[in-house]
Design a protein that fits this description.
Layout (H helix, E strand, L loop, with lengths): L1 E10 L4 H7 L6 E2 L6 E5 L6 E5 L8 H15 L8 E11 L6 E5 L2 E5 L5 H16 L27 H14 L2
Antiparallel strand pairs: 1-4, 1-5, 2-3, 3-4, 6-7
Length: 176
């Protein structure tokens, strides 16, 4: 497992007509780059929730908020003067094969490695895991018992994240 920081901001309240213009639906939006940004209107449609990987390693919330706000303004020039009201971060668990893993080891059942898709998949795989614990065939998934590939010299400290993110950012900039 590779712990990777995911940083989020919430904007100050936005006028309803501006929200309707830039985000006409309540859908979650993400881009197709390797270093993605993801965003959506808040449930009350008063703010934009915006997140992503803002740096090559761990950073403080003030720095991440500034970088995310700048990226939000780059995507939506209408928000050039918007301020951030809240900022937070957490870690997402990545695997080297970018696959989720479900299984049991030494009596401990697990479903992990959502690689940034945990909100949607954790409930689903949690249900399947519960079915597996009960011995139900319906609990089977395509992610059961997959091996955990690793990389040479990786011992749990995510030293390789910085060079990987740098390479992905270059790839995104060049349009690969």
């Amino acid at each position: 497992m590779i712990p990777i920081g995911s940083y989020m901001i919430a904007t100050e309240p936005i006028a309803p007509d501006l929200m309707d213009k830039i985000m006409p639906t309540d859908r979650i939006i993400s881009d197709t780059r390797k270093v993605v940004y993801y965003f959506r209107p808040s449930p009350d449609r008063r703010r934009i929730l915006f997140g992503g990987r803002v740096c090559h390693g761990k950073t403080d919330l003030s720095t991440s908020a500034t970088r995310l706000r700048d990226e939000l303004a780059r995507l939506f020039p209408e928000l050039a003067n918007i301020r951030v009201s809240h900022t937070w971060m957490g870690f997402v668990g990545y695997t080297f094969d970018t696959l989720m893993h479900v299984g049991e080891r030494d009596g401990l059942h697990y479903a992990l490695g959502y690689c940034g898709a945990g909100v949607g998949m954790a409930s689903y795989l949690g249900m399947r895991m519960g079915q597996q614990v009960l011995g139900l065939k319906s609990g089977r998934t395509a992610f059961d018992g997959l091996p955990f590939p690793t990389r040479p010299f990786y011992g749990g400290r995510p030293w390789l994240v910085a060079p990987t993110v740098m390479a992905y950012r270059l790839r995104d900039r060049l349009g690969f």
